[in-house]
Design brief:
- It is a single chain.
- The protein is an alpha/beta fold.
- It folds into three domains: 95-189 and 426-596, 3-Layer(aba) Sandwich (Rossmann fold), CATH 3.40.50; 193-404, Dimethylsulfoxide Reductase, domain 2; 646-759, Barwin-like endoglucanases.
- 35% of the residues lie in helices and 17% in strands.
- It has 32 helices and 33 strands.
- The strands form ten sheets. A six-stranded mixed beta sheet has the order 5-4-17-16-15-6.
- Strand 27 (665-666) and strand 28 form a beta hairpin.
- Bound molecules: ligand MGD (2 copies) and molybdenum atom.
- One ligand MGD binds at residues 58, 112, 159, 161, 185, 188-189, 369, 373, 406-407, 464-468, 471, 491-494, 496, 511, 513, 553, 650, 658-660, 729-730, 733, 750.
Length: 769
């Protein structure tokens, strides 16, 4: 199935006709305000979001421009802030009322709705309740346990929000203690990027900056849902579209944000309700079919060059790349019928996009989870790079590769040392700087950490934010294994399921959020983070903390480290907690190229750029050149399901931030009220004998031993390619086995899981999961 902008959404399926942004987004914010009754000063905080010397949004990682608009925030940034600054509290009294076992029955939404955690809590196995404890008690307990354990049996997981300062001391603590088990939420999203781009262009992050978005004449969007997941990016897209830049989108779902956007900051658009069209072509590729599309695009670019000449940037190819001949031969050998069949896009559509590409001189390739979360995610990214390399679209103004990162500091966490891959970290420098011998053994990725919990190799799990147990694949099977942990420590803001999967000892440590004032010995502290376009920004919180007992993430990490490690004069934890600029000094020593004069530059409007070798056309790859990669398959899926079965893509709604569920309205997809739904093409429904609202169970087929099922999901007719079903994450994570991941980077293949959809036996009454 393919369609371009002129084709409307299938009329027989639910959809949303309004542009993204507009009044709908204002209503979305107001609804949450009513529910959370946040700190009355929340409006002031929202207005400071992403402003120079303001508060850097905790939602997505999109760039913060040097000249921000008066309102440099979006619906989701505002929602994240309201969620953080709620007036509800999750207190010791709450925990006295509810046992841990009873809380396990609560939904993700209801757990977080209890409110902000207020006190450090320790699990009491005899009563099955969390009970309050002092910070010293918590740190002593953690230190005592960690000293007893083999460091290699301990995992330090980080969700991508914590600041550069906290992340740096977190990774240092792990290495001083003796392991590289530093998985990060990035292992579940853009690890494919970190591994893939590093291999093919020698830089693990994107090459674009905001200026490129102002000068490109064509933009590709592969599997990234801008309207929901990085809405502020719609501003440069709107500008680009108005300039006449062509936007071509490949996505199985017609996402509103990539179709039309009404800027809430433009009164005319708000009054007329008419937005700016974003995508010139919108092609509903089959899941995993991007590899075939990209093969078709490259093939036709090569064909056009053979016919009319001057299409390839031959000078760039010969001077800067390696592997062209083999790659070009493979493209020539691939047949169009296989490309059409695997992608679901017609040869003529692919050829016309390729012709547009051949006419454009500055092209950016943007992508998200639709490329990274696949078994052949690496090849997806390598193929997009191949397409860009053919016309020299890396390292020139207005061109490049632009992965859109997830959490607000996920990219930065990797930059300052949170990595399970020791070869990416300047261990020699750390050894000198802190006078110790850093561990050199490769640590666990996210799936290896989860596997370690399952098979008992992991004895202690320390979590800097996040909701690991709910975010990983194979949730139902892994849940049971957590109880065999010796220690589960969770640094968090709100209660979630990962806190309830208690081990012999479990500790819940409540921390400040970024918008709260962080007062330490030397006064109010600022923190820093890195955005998707590799710019570093300072951020200062001003709100009164949710409780007097809260501590900053940095001081919690330092507290645990002090209780665990033997003292080291080079690591003055108390001084660092008292004044974060001292940590930034250490970061600048470890990473002089990126962070020289860190303290002086941290409030540069628009952030300071940490540089990128590929952008300078210096290729830190094995061959010293940018690599053309010859693909080995046309589909990013491990297998195309047999007739009658489906490929499941797991989706985020417009009313969630990962496992944080704000509400039940997926407005931009025209869906409302429920999350346990499965979206299906009406023709597929008919063939399977299913009707709208029918209750079904989904069985994961990637590995059927043990059986992986979810039950009582409701069928919703939706405009999807044939053979593809969509359902929300994390409700369907139980269907995906841990070993179903990108071959190279181990990023879970959350966008390509084979499933069977079957009616519930008797409307759900007798089924067991
Ligand atoms: N509001 C909000 N913002 C967020 C988040 C959130 O949950 N809520 N999460 C944050 C995080 S951590 C991340 S990593 C990012 C994620 O942001 P995105 O990268 O946008 O990730 P997803 O929404 O999971 O999926 C993106 C798109 O991929 C499409 N897709 C699925 N399979 C395929 C495929 O095979 N090919 C193609 N071409 N497309 C496909 C889906 O239809 C969807 O539109 O967003 C961040 N921002
Ligand atoms: N099926 C499927 N699974 C997926 C995905 C998918 O697309 N499909 N996406 C994957 C991706 S891209 C990601 S990034 C992961 C997300 O995985 P995680 O990053 O582990 O999960 P989050 O839902 O972002 O974590 C939410 C929790 O973080 C805590 N928190 C919030 N703010 C703060 C803070 O400032 N400090 C601290 N210490 N804690 C805080 C709160 O307690 C909250 O409950 O999920 C992955 N799982
Ligand atoms: Mo992510």
């Amino acid at each position: 199935m393919s369609n371009d902008f002129s084709k409307e959404q299938r009329p027989d399926t639910p959809h949303y006709d309004e542009p993204t942004g507009g009044w709908g987004s204002v209503k979305g914010m107001l609804r949450l305000m009513k529910k959370e009754r946040p700190d009355p000063l929340v409006a002031e905080t929202i207005l400071r979001l992403n402003q120079p010397e303001g508060d850097m949004c905790t939602a997505c990682a999109w760039a913060k421009p040097a000249n921000p608009s008066r309102f440099e925030f979006c619906e989701n940034g505002a929602k994240a802030t309201i969620w953080d600054l709620t007036s509800d509290r999750c207190t010791p009294e709450f925990f006295a009322q509810h046992s841990v076992t009873s809380l396990l029955e609560w939904s993700d939404h209801d757990l977080e709705m209890v409110g902000r955690l207020t006190h450090p809590m320790r699990y009491e196995p005899n009563t099955d309740h969390y009970v309050p404890c002092s910070w010293d008690e918590a740190f002593d307990l953690i230190g005592e346990q960690l000293q007893r354990l083999d460091p290699e049996s301990v995992v330090f997981y980080a969700s991508g929000r914590a600041s550069l300062e906290t992340s740096y001391v977190w990774a240092l603590f792990a290495r001083l203690y003796g392991h590289n088990n530093l998985p990060d939420s990035s292992n579940m999203c853009h690890e494919t990027t970190s591994v893939g781009l590093k291999k093919v262009i020698g830089s693990s992050v994107g090459t674009c900056v905001l200026d490129d978005f102002e000068h490109c004449d064509m933009l590709f969007f592969f599997g990234q849902n801008t309207g929901t997941n990085s809405p502020r990016m719609l501003h440069p897209l709107q500008e680009a579209s108005r300039r006449g830049c062509k936007v071509i989108t490949f996505n199985p779902v017609r996402e509103r944000g990539l179709i039309e956007f009404a800027n809430p900051q433009e009164p005319l658009q708000m009054l007329s309700g008419k937005g700016t069209p974003i995508s010139d072509r919108y092609l509903q590729v089959k899941p995993g079919g991007d590899l075939a599309v990209l093969t078709g695009l490259c093939k036709h670019v090569l064909e056009l060059d053979a016919i009319q000449g001057n299409v390839l940037d031959e000078e760039f190819i010969s001077e800067h790349t390696h592997g062209f001949d083999r790659f070009a031969a493979c493209m020539a050998d691939t047949q169009w019928d296989a490309i059409e069949k695997t992608s679901g896009i017609s040869c003529s559509d692919i050829k016309s996009v390729a012709a547009q590409y051949a006419r454009s001189s500055r092209v950016i390739g943007v992508y998200g989870m639709g490329l990274t979360q696949h078994v052949h995610g690496f090849q997806n990214i390598a193929m997009l790079i191949n397409l860009l390399l053919l016309r020299g679209n890396i390292g020139k103004r207005g061109a490049g590769i632009s992965p859109v990162r997830g959490h607000s500091n996920v990219q930065g966490q990797r930059t300052v040392g949170i990595s399970e891959k020791p070869e990416l970290v300047p261990l020699k420098q750390l050894a000198e700087q802190f006078d110790f011998t850093p561990p050199t053994k490769t640590g666990f990725t996210t799936v290896e950490a989860a596997q370690g919990v399952l098979d008992g190799r992991v004895k202690a799990f320390i979590s800097l934010g996040g909701n690991f147990a709910r975010a990983i694949p194979d949730q139902a099977n892994t849940d049971a294994a957590w109880s065999s942990l010796t220690l589960n420590v969770q640094i968090a803001t709100k209660l979630n399921r990962s806190h309830l999967l208690v081990g012999s000892q479990s500790v819940l440590l409540p921390c400040l959020v970024r918008s709260e004032e962080d007062r330490q010995a030397s006064g109010t502290q600022a923190v820093t983070l890195e955005d998707s376009l590799s710019h570093i920004h300072g951020s200062i919180g001003k709100r009164t903390p949710a409780s007097d007992m809260l501590r900053s993430e940095l001081s919690i990490v330092a507290g645990m480290a002090k209780a665990t490690l033997t003292p080291n004069a080079r690591v003055p934890w108390d001084q660092w907690v008292g004044d974060y600029s001292k940590v930034r000094e250490q970061i600048a020593i470890t990473y002089p190229e990126e962070f020289a004069d860190f303290n002086d530059r941290m409030f540069t409007p628009g952030g300071f750029y940490r540089g990128n070798s590929a952008r300078r056309r210096e290729w830190a790859t094995t061959s010293g050149k940018a690599e053309f990669t010859t693909p080995t398959t046309l589909s990013a899926l491990r297998e195309i399901p047999a007739t009658g079965d489906f490929t499941l893509i797991t989706l985020r709604s417009n009313d969630q931030f990962n496992t944080t569920i704000y509400g039940f309205s997926d407005r931009l997809r025209g869906l409302d009220g429920a999350r346990e739904i499965v979206m299906m093409n009406p023709e597929d429904m008919q063939r399977a004998g299913l009707v709208e609202n029918q209750k079904v169970m989904l069985e994961g087929l990637a590995d059927r031993s043990p059986e992986r099922r979810v039950i009582n999901f409701k069928v919703v007719a939706y405009d999807l390619p044939l053979g593809c079903v969509g359902a929300y994450y994390p409700e369907t994570n139980a269907l995906i086995p841990l070993n179903h991941h990108d071959v190279e980077s181990k990023t879970p293949a959350y966008k390509g899981c084979p499933v069977r959809v079957q009616p519930m036996p008797t409307d759900g009454q007798d089924a067991t999961a």
